[in-house]
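Catalogue entry: protein
Contents: sequence, fold tokens
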Amino acid sequence: MTNKIMTIASAPLIETERVSLDEHGREAAILWFNRPDALNAISWEAMRDLAASLAAAEQDHAVRAVFIAGRGRAFSAGGDIKAYKKLQADGAAFTAFVDDYCRLTEGIADMTKPVIALVNGLCAAGGLELLLACDFAWAAESARIGDMHVNFAQIGGSGAMARLPRLIGQARALELVLSGEMLDSRLALEWGIVNRVVPDDRLLEEGLRFARALAAKSPNAVKFVKQSIRHGMDQDLPGALKFERDQCLRYCLTLPDSMEGINAFIEKRDPVYGAGQ
């Protein structure tokens, strides 16, 4: 089957593509940073456009996976440093800007659909914080990933200090942030910042292959798995185990997808799952 890629919405800084995954109308949403000449630097406008695009994908039952990627040579080089000259001179405005970015990154955890970063090139500072907020990330072989805030006498405010050490450990996080250096894709994989490294020309293809497999699964099961793992990581082990147990009972006893999966297996047919609830 040939998938048709259709551009259904675009904005000056973010483009949304919808990709058909199967004959049942299930789709993937690819959110592209579209400021390649500026290495996809994240302006306030781009941040708002990305937040709106994520919200639209979350509300659309046809969307089974969301990818964030960048046009050109970068995923995102982070915040727009040139804009900071004026923005940081206004305490109220800069506080609002940082708070908006925190809401965007923190909101990804509350989405019911997997959000995957496809890191095609340079990923630094605010771009790294966005990667860390995603459920996981895949990198092209040419990708280079780091923090770099300190290189410009800045510090991160939306995950570089909090999510990074939880992902790779305190010592490695301190080394990466304080050095301001960039990791190549293989070292980023070794350190656990990305899940996979693939050839540059296959990054999107491999992402869509994952989305096609995901599309056949119960969207409710996917949602409950994401909630259980995400919220469990914020608790101690006994609390995480209780949350997992409660999620299991809620899903299996209140939603029909679980029994549909069992019946389809026994009857040797394809399951028919409901939309995410």
User: Anything to note?
Assistant: The CA atoms of residues 44 and 97 lie 7 Å apart. The mean pLDDT is 90. The first strand starts at residue 5 and ends at 10. DSSP finds eleven helices and eleven strands in the chain.
